[in-house]
Amino acid sequence: MSARIYNRIAVFRAEVGMTRKALAEKVGVNPQTIGFLERGDYNPSLELALRVSQVFKVPVELLFSFTPFPSVAATLLGQESDNALQG
Prior knowledge:
The protein is mainly alpha-helical. Helices cover 63% and strands 5% of the residues. The chain has helices at 9-16, 20-27, 31-39, 46-56, 60-63, 72-86, and strands at residues 6-7, 64-65. The chain has a two-stranded antiparallel sheet with strand order 1-2. It comes from Croceibacterium selenioxidans.
């Protein structure tokens, strides 16, 4: 039994306007594999995780984690609260 691996692939793809197909071509997998990864239906191999992180030029731990990532909204709200406290 393997642990679930959470990821932010869809967030990073959206940020740069990349399709699943384009990402799949860059890392050498089927576009369906990217969909499976994004939904958490498939855990990537170490090699695939590193390839995906290289595409986005970020450390692998920014894309993949054993614990869920906070939602984008929660992250933004947290930053806004921090900014309000400082200002």
